[in-house]
Amino acid sequence: MGNVIIPARGVNRRLAAVARPFRLISTPAARCVSTEDVMPSDRPPFFGLLQRRTCLCPTWRGWLMAALIVVPLVVAGLRGLQPFLALNRPAPGGVLVIEGWLPDFAMEAALAEARRTPYAAIYVTGGPLEQGKPLSVYKTFAELGAATLEKLGPATPAPIAVPAGDVRRDRTYASAVTLREWLKAHGGAPAKLNLVSIGAHARRSRMMFAKAFGPGTEVGVIAVAGRDYDSRHWWRTSQGFRTVTDEFIAYLYATFVFTAE
Prior knowledge:
The protein is an alpha/beta fold. The protein has helices spanning 13-16, 35-38, 45-48, 60-85, 104-116, 141-152, 171-185, 202-213, 238-256, and strands spanning 4-7, 22-25, 95-99, 121-126, 159-163, 192-198, 218-224.
């Protein structure tokens, strides 16, 4: 018996407009080939849980173009993130506020600023110590920071410790609110406030103090350069990578999630 060619049934209608497939019926000695053998089924696979999609993949030219765009952006981001976070925008005059948890070399820089620029008052902020409190006569970072400044040398006016309470979250903001309420009880908020912070923490600290004091107080910030990693190549050390990425995430939280209470 010779081969007989008849039109196949159930062929995708979209393909029928281009070419009409046929089913080959041969003798018992020959294998029968149908469209179901060479074309995927229209039924979704895996009981309808998956579906087939057509996607576009870049060629080597596409990958090269993407690399030429992405690589410079990544390099610029790595080099610019630390300077962005370590904001240095002083507002001399008014009152000087120092975060009490700063290391000694940052306290020395704060003392130099207090001697260089006349301020109406010097305040040191901070909450309870997180380590060594039973062994220390100072129970808060504010008290410890003020005592450290006095030991480093005389400052005029003398630093005043304004301790914050024990809070679980938003400790910088809590310190700023505590200082604001203390100043309200002792003459009112100043027109200018110059904050001393350190490295990548500076921008977020300034933001928290600005939120706490409101538009009536100009908040400046002095970012003392840190010493535990190279700020120009912060991604090369674990300490630098951890510090900068943590501060960037915290800055995003403070910008988009945090709400002042």
